[in-house]
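Hi R.,

Quick one: here's the Heme chaperone HemW sequence you asked about.
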Amino acid sequence: MLAYLHIPFCDSKCHYCAFNSYENKGTLKQNYMHHITTQLRFELEKFNAQKESITSLFIGGGTPSTIPASWYESFFKMITPYLSHDAEVTSEANPHSATQEWIAEMKTLGINRLSFGVQSFNEQKLTFLGRNHSPKIALQAIHNASKVGIQNISLDLIYGTALDTPSLLERDLHIASSLPINHLSAYALTLEEATPFYKRNDVTNDSEELAKTFVQAIIQAGFPQYEISNFGRYQSIHNKGYWEHQDYLGIGAGAVGFLKNRRFYPSKEIETYIQNPLFQEVETLRREDLHNETLFLGLRSNIGIVLDEFSPKERERVNLLIRENKLTCKDNRVFNNDYFLSDEIALFITQ
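And here's the predicted structure, written out as tokens:
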């Protein structure tokens, strides 16, 4: 079982960001942090959570580091007995707000992994993306995490912007691989509705060659690829748990939960969530929905898909793709040979 806590507050909103986050609602922070424990208590009971049954907790956002560490104490006091002794406990962090003191206090609460939203080490590109930190601040934040004793550190990079060239991406990767990190996430810039970038036609570089070259360079730099956007000598338990369709508690505004065949959707608006943190819309998934998700997720990652998951008709298409060397079959599991084609392959199999 996994748990996810959503912190929907940001100091500033990036030009590409479509996540459920707000930059102008800071006065609600303390009240919000009080109500997440109300929902957590409810979710632990609903999921019939046993002590030490949660193998991973992920705090995402938004910007978790915009919340003082002491405000997380009540949440950790309640959830810690349910965390397994070797649970992965991750928090996202913005280099600008993740001070050494904040990192040290979060480590004391139980954080043992940090994921930094760096995006680039190029000053011009950071400004273009609307990031509020400098390359120097990003470097300092990662070194601070290492100094404090966080051994599992990840950072995010974005590629596919109009500013990207082979040399810029090579420089970003060179700096990243010189840091005390063991995981890296690389995301192609996508234009999402209701973002400043959405209606602009001058912000992306859709070169497939540039993307594939960058991914290969990450792998060659010592970060094995285990999902379309994730690379690491350490593979995130939380990420893999999602792809394996494990149950997960979703805590906070807009934090989706999943139990067996049901998804739970709390209110996205912070004010509405605070008024009633227990309100949720429930979606019941059909067997076909779960099957299709299993295929899409398995083809995007190195967990693959058990052969028995496929219908006879799907198996015929799988065998064709194996003959074309697009898929590999090993130990009764099917694996994708090209993550860039994962969605197309899944659609071909399920059509």
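Residues 2-243 form a domain with the TIM Barrel fold (CATH 3.20.20.70).

Cheers,
M.
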